[in-house]
Design goal:
- The chain is an alpha+beta fold and 281 residues long.
- It has a domain of 150 residues.
- The chain contains 13 helices and six strands.
- The strands form two sheets. Strands 1-2-4-3 form a four-stranded mixed sheet, covered by helices on one side.
- A hairpin with a 2-residue loop joins strand 5 and strand 6.
- Helix 5 crosses helix 6, helix 7 packs across helix 12 and helix 12 packs antiparallel against helix 13.
- The radius of gyration is 20 Å and the shape is globular.
- The two termini are 39 Å apart.
Length: 281
Amino acid sequence: MLLEALTIGQMQWLQVEQQQMLLCPERDLQQCVKALPDAIQSRLPTALELKQNLEFRQGFSLTFSHSDVKGMVLYKTVPQALIAKVGYQLIDYRSEFEISNFLIHEIGHIVVKATINEQQLAPLFSWQCGDFEFQHYQDELLADLYAMWSMAQSEQYPERIAALVDKRNLMLVNDTQNRYYWSVPIIQDIRDNFAASEIKNTTFATFINKVWQLELKVSDPGWYQQMIGLFKAEFSLQPDYHQPSYLRWHRRGFGEYLKPTLERHLGAVVAQNWLKKRALL
C-alpha cells in the first residue's frame, strides 16, 4: 500500500504503478539531484531555482520523459499554515495526514500524466468558461482522485478523505484563487456512488473511467462557476461584493458542501447556527 510505504522526511525511491519516482525532502535536495540519471540532471533547473520555486509552496512534482524515472516530488516536511475566517471565527487547519496526503496528490500528478500518455484514461469532460483555465483544473482534479483512490487502500480512508475535503474547502474560503483545487463536489459524488471496497478493488485507470460515467455536477461549467461565486459572496474580503440574485437558488446545496468541514472545526452548534444565519441550511 502506497501510504504505508511513505517514509516522510527521507529521500525515498518509490515504485508506483510500474513507474519509478523519487520523493525528496528539501534538506536532501543536493543528494536527490545526484541520485537522478545524468540525462535528467542535465535538464533540471539549478538547485537554487528549485529552492526558489519551493519558497512559498508545500512542494511540487516534476515529471520526466525517461525510460526508468518518471518524476520527482520536492517537498517541505513542515505543513504550511492555513487559516480561514468564517464569520467571526478563525479556523486554523491542522491534520496529522497533511504531508502524506500532499505527497500522494503530487505522486498523482506524475502517475496521471503517464497514464494519460499511455491512453488508459477516457477523455475528461471539457468546457470553457470565461478566463477559467480548464487544463489546470483537470490536472488538480485528477491528482486528487488519485489521492482518493490511494486512500481507499488504507484503513484510514474516512479520516483521510475528511482531511482532504476540509483542506480543499478551507483553501477556497481563504482565497477564491484556489478554485482550481476545489474537488469537493466530485469527491462527494464518488462517495455517494462507490463504497471504499469498490474503489479499492480496481485499478486507478478503471476507477477514473467509472467516475466519468457518473452524472457529475462539475461537468456543468455554469453550476461550478456559481459555486465559486457563492464562495466569493460569503468569504470575499471586499465588503461591497454584490451577490447576483440567481445564486440564491444554490445556497443550500452550497451549504451542504461546507457543513461537514465547519462542524469538524467549529463544532456542530456553532457551524449550524452560522449556516442557518446565512441561509445555507
